[in-house]
Amino acid sequence: MERSLVQLVCDAKCDGPQSLRSAARLMSIMTDQPQRLAELLANSRDWPQPRLVLGITGAPGSGKSTLTDHLATEFRKRHPQQRLGIVAVDPSSPFTGGALLGDRVRMMRHATDPGVFIRSLASRGRLGGLALGAKGVVRVMGLIGCDVVIVETVGVGQSEVEIAQSADFVMVVLAPGHGDSVQMLKAGLMEAGDMFVVNKADRPGAAQLHQQLLSALQTSWMARLDLAHPASDDVHRAALPSQHPHGTKCDLPPDGRFENDADFPPIFLCSASNHEGVRELADAIEAITARKADDWRAGRHQQALEEIRQAVLEEVRRRVSEVIGANGASAVRTLPVLTGEVSLKNLVDEVMQESVSRASRADRQPGTQ
Amino acid sequence: MSAVRKARLLIGKPGLDGHDRGAKYVAHVLRDAGFEVIYTGIRRSPEQIVDAAIQEDVAAIGLSLLSGAHNVLFPRVVELLRERQAEDIVVFGGGTIPPKDVPKLKALGVAAVFTPGTPAREIVETIDGLLGARQAV
Q1: Alpha carbons A250 and A267: distance in angstroms, whole number
Q2: What are the start-end ranges of the H helices in A144-231?
Q3: Is the overall model pTM greater than 0.90, yes or no?
Q4: Closest CA to B90 of B111, B70, B113
Q5: How distant is the Cα of B63 from the closest Cα of chain A, in angstroms?
Q6: What residues in B contact A100, CB-CB < 8 Å?
Q7: Cα–Cα dist B113/B102, whole Å
Q8: ipTM confidence score
Q9: Cys-Cys crosslink for A92: which of A122, A301, A333, B111, Cβ 3.0 to 4.6 Å?
Q10: Angle, vertex CA B8, rays to CA B4 and CA B11, nearest 5
Q11: What is the pLDDT of residues A212-248, one digit of tens each?
């Protein structure tokens, strides 16, 4: 029988030989049964939590894993006493359900560093509840003392963007030579970004991409301001940066211009594989964390409530699926709707009632759990 | 979400040879068979592989080696797993391994060895069998 959640939490928290194994097992439970995040949350009120959960997202091949690897090196150098967590998400095959998780290839130099815990996750499709499972994994990373957790996901597909959005702070990585970068921005990732990185800055086209990105961000910033203010108020428009300090790696203004959410997101030029621009990037992340960590912490209570709501939805979906059957299951229940003998509403009522009675039967027979 | 979720596996290449075609091919085959496969890349130490396997909570580790160091590196991985109290993680291997070495490796705790020419189906079925047996215990 599987060791209980409480026992695993206890083992993970103690610094024994089983600590990391128990933490890893807890993470598996969170991704396999995301609805159990609610249980974990109930036990985790007094756990340490990461100070910063950093989401990194962007098109495939833009260098997210390499950037994550170099940021990890930078953070470890600055805070050798603190553990760092990395959650790396790669897509599952929609055809076989299998996945090849290769982000670790770029991060193997941290593999034997006890201060870095890396966990690869497969996205498991839209209904896999990954967004919720990933939150559980981040919780467990907090439990084992990770001060910073980097969550790296491919910026395509709803669940992946959702995971990124659940981070405190989201960095969008772009690289020159990707015709689809601008397409990706169109698809809505732009709104998710709190910070942008033009990676592979040593390649031709980087300056051009930087310009395109800047102009796209300016447009959206201006539109947002326009909508937020009455027609007569044009003070904010005057504050729009008309000339960008091009060529600089860091354009974080010194006087805290980015103090609220309407701030213009900073853009960085990096060449992650050469560790160029990574130090400046880490500086900026630390500055923002120092300024906002308290707000983020305050927001987590609200987040936890939302996570419980999602856990409820996930559990309901699981129970109802048990009754109605998984994909390709018998059509005994669905066929009568197609032929018009039963209305959809009646089928739903029936399925939900059966689901409730199954659950109460299971409660009466605790041995089966 | 499918009812049966296949296990997580780690495919790694310990040692110094860089011939990763076999490892990548097997990783691909296992992915297509529905496993979640974590690939570590080439030239990893047994320590790197074992630490990664523990963090990833995998059910099995597959090692690929073409340099001839299998008699040292495969048992080293088994030994490290034992040290870390993770001996329930199944270890299998493959590569250019002389048939005469296979019984020795098995005696040292390597559950299966796939030499060149092993049909993909056989690899998948063997791993299914190994992991099924593990769950039944």
Answers
A1: 7
A2: 158-165, 181-184, 190-192, 206-228
A3: no
A4: B111
A5: 15
A6: 27-28, 31, 37, 39
A7: 7
A8: 0.89
A9: A122
A10: 145
A11: 888 888 777 777 777 877 766 555 555 554 444 433 3
